[in-house]
Amino acid sequence: MHGTSGTGKHVNAWILAALVLILVIVAGALVIWLKSSHNPDIEISLALPRAVTGSIYVGGEVNNPGWYPLFNSDNFTDIIRAAGGLKDGADLSEVELTVGGAGKQENVQKIDINRAAAWLLEALPDVGEAKAQAIIDYRQKNGPFRDIYELEKVPGFGPASLEKLKDLITVND
């Protein structure tokens, strides 16, 4: 009889260990479920169309000096990015900015859609990352654009898009 009570304690210890293990597994699963099922709300914000308010000459210590369209939401970083960024080791006091008035688009440096990198195409009105990539894909597949009106063959561009861009783009400039 003495040997049986020792076996009972041993069985009870295993049952207790199994119950603790089950509780740990259930608690862990509950924590994982709570963390994975509580997704934060997704907020979508659309950028408002940018209106050209004039033109600006960017010169001096930038990679691509020239006239660029000036948008109402532009800041210094946007303007410098449009001009190809600062030269290596540039001194900001040597950057030239000359603001022109609205309607002076004839002085704007046009972007060559046959050579422009994606970041420069994205600086154009209503041309985001997807449309810039579509221009690059089109010219890789079909060769260089023969004229700016061929842009209407690129997915995402139509007559309205071309109307907004025609004074800002060129081919083989």
Give the helices and strands, then pairings:
Blueprint: H1 2-37, E1 52-60, E2 66-71, H2 76-82, E3 95-100, E4 111-112, H3 118-121, H4 129-142, H5 159-165, E5 169-170
Parallel strand pairs: 4-5
Antiparallel strand pairs: 1-2, 1-3
Task: Describe the fold and architecture.
With 173 residues, the protein is of the alpha+beta class. The protein has 3 domains: 35 residues; 53 residues, no CATH class; 64 residues, DNA polymerase, domain 1. 39% of the residues lie in helices and 14% in strands. The protein contains 5 helices and 5 strands; from the N terminus they run αββαββαααβ. The strands form 2 sheets. A 3-stranded antiparallel sheet has the order 2-1-3, with helices on one face. The protein is elongated. It starts with a helix and ends with a strand. About 3% of the residues have low confidence.
CATH architectural type of the largest domain: Orthogonal Bundle
Computed over alpha carbons, the radius of gyration is 31 Å
Residue stretches low in confidence (pLDDT < 50, at least 5 long) are 101-105
Total helical elements = 5
| Number of β-strand runs | 5
What is the helix/strand order? Answer: HEEHEEHHHE
Q: How many domains comprise the coordinates?
A: 3
The helical percent reads: 25-40%
By helix and strand content, what is the structural category?
alpha+beta
Mean pLDDT: 80
Shape: elongated
Enumerate the strands of the largest sheet in spatial order, edge to edge or round the barrel.
Answer: 2-1-3
The first-level CATH class name of the largest domain: Mainly Alpha
End-to-end CA span: 104 Å
CATH topology of the largest domain: DNA polymerase, domain 1
